Amino acid sequence: MMPIAEALAFFSDQGEGYKVELLKDLEEKGEKAVSLYQQGDFIDLCRGPHIPDTSWLKSFKLLRVAGSYWRGDERNPMLTRIYGTAFSDKKDLKKYLNRIEEAKKRDHRKLGKELALFTIQDEVGPGLILWQPRGAMLRKLIEDYWKDAHYKNGYELLYTPHIARQDLWKTSGHLDFYGENMYSAMEIDEVAYQLKPMNCPFHIGVYNATKHSYREFPVRWCELGTVYRYERTGALHGLMRVRGFTQDDAHIFCRPDQLEEEIFNIIDLNLQVLKTFGFADYDVYLSTRPEKYVGSDEHWDLSTKALQAAMEKKGLAYAIDPGEGVFYGPKIDIKIKDQLGRSWQCSTIQVDFNLPERFGMTYTGQDGAEHQPIMIHRALMGSLERFIGVLIEHYAGAFPLWMAPEQARILNITDAQAEYCSKVYTELRQAGVRVEQDLRNEKLNYKIREAQMMKTPYMLIIGDREMEEGTVTVRKRNGDNLPPMTPQEFADLVSKECEQGTA
RNA sequence: GCCGAUAUAGCUCAGCUUGGUAGAGCGGCUGAUUCGUAAUCAGUAGGUCUCCGGUUCAAGUCCGGAUAUCGGCUCCA
Q1: Separation in Å: B27 C1' and A427 CA
Q2: Is A496 labeled as catalytic in the residue annotation?
Q3: Residues A76, A218: one domain?
Q4: What stretches of A384-490 adopt beta strand conformation (E)?
Q5: Is A372 a known active-site residue?
Q6: Which residue, among A255, A187, A266, A182, has the nearest Cα to A222 in the 3D structure?
């Protein structure tokens, strides 16, 4: 330990400006003394202690270097940060490095290419996704499930355009508060239009198209809405961070007395959706008022409390993310971790007292007077792109049967069975199985290997035996075989397994 | 956007240090083979070496710039 004044002198003698700055801050906070640690000739400021001595660090490896802003603020100069890791013995270090290697194999960008799910091309532009047939099928299956779940939970579906007059974005406040994330205007018949970064103003447009009564609340409108946001080049990352993405958006309009229950319902549906996709490990945050905001403090308080109350009723553990709310209201965020341990925000639930005001939304109350509805924005998967990215890594590309783009592949042993295979193929397609056939003149081993690498859940092997008996032999992707069965029996097995998956 | 790195055939990569007009494996195509649970054999096509400029008799290779990607930072669904 060293008194701060002494430490200040010590580090300024050495020309360590950043250390001096830290010390001055500590002094202001009322610290009297700081701890220093020494290793050979090297003496540094450190709160410590981390380990008894450096003999604990027998095995270490430097992993990467990266630039990093002084104190994490991009207005500050950039320092060079060196990442390293250390273990008490070599085996542990090796184990750790292997785990990183394994995680890299599950990287959605690598799997996306290998499994032919999606592609991003320079000619099209950075951060813009082209869905290949298999990825498009995966997405369709997710969308179908989503629409069904929303219908069952009292939502109605909307469709809205991709651009709107600039005036709309002025009214909504997006131009003022979100303008730096929006693409510049285009002119159509001398009127400025802009690409949408959010869907909310359109849903409000639908609301304002008709008169509303308190009796019809809550109104729940959902849309798979594709939005475009400017992201700085360095921020783009595969499917996780893109410039054009589709939100599984919804807006709920309700009375103040319904707010808490609606939020509770949303959380309930949210957790149900995450569970369907096999996510049990996520972090929940409550984000409070940011620096740039609209609306009264009273409204912020009220809605923050409603969010908190609903989470507590649901027994959901959460952390508070101070100042991370959107400009129009506080929010609940759920973040899911990817294979490399990076967490990605997916679900978000936001209360909004602002847009109803800006767009003059009203409903007729029991008292016959006009009132302003409360608006809730929410997305459960967040964006389909990001969610699918996380999903690919979560399952390492081996999707559960119900969302596998290709559920089964027919493999013939020789050309002699080709005709029978095509019959089975047609029969299974008619029965709703997502089946492909590989009738190439290749050895069975070769075809199995390919089907296996594409993580196809079932391989249907057909040789002379099966052809004579009118059956298929089913090989699972884990290598197990099921007893021979008829194509119809296989189709039943598939639909039963799918039902269990989404139940 | 910032710091650092990378960019060669559809994919994965070698060639660059020491300038002399491009290589492999897989995949594609053609042919042979007709085979029972993770790669049959042979032949063949395929590249303005990301783009723009500079140095040089000569640039995939050296230099500068742009773009994109990767690892971080910042920001975010």
Answers
A1: 31
A2: no
A3: no
A4: 408-412, 435-438, 458-462, 472-476, 481-485
A5: no
A6: A266
Q: A150 and A74, same structural domain?
A: no
Instruction: With a cut of 70, say whether residue A340 has pLDDT above it.
Output: no
- Candidate list A212, A377, A447, A455, residue with the active-site label: A377
Distance CA A273, CA A191 (A): 41
- Cα(A13)–Cα(A7) distance, integer angstroms: 10
**A123-171 residue pLDDT tens:** 899 999 999 999 999 999 999 999 999 999 999 999 999 999 999 999 9
pLDDT greater than 70 at residue A503: no
Residue A359: the pLDDT is 96
Where in the sequence is the domain holding A27, given as residue range(s)? 1-50
Confidence check on the interface: ipTM exceeds 0.90, yes or no? yes
Q: For this structure, is A200 an active site residue?
A: yes
Domain shared by A451 and A405, yes or no: yes
Q: How many domains does chain A have?
A: 4
| Domain final residue pick, A395, A412, A445 | A395
Closest nucleotide to A234's CA, by C1' atom? B1
Contact A350, A330 (CB under 8 A): yes
Q: How far is the CA of A441 from the C1' of B43 (A)?
A: 17
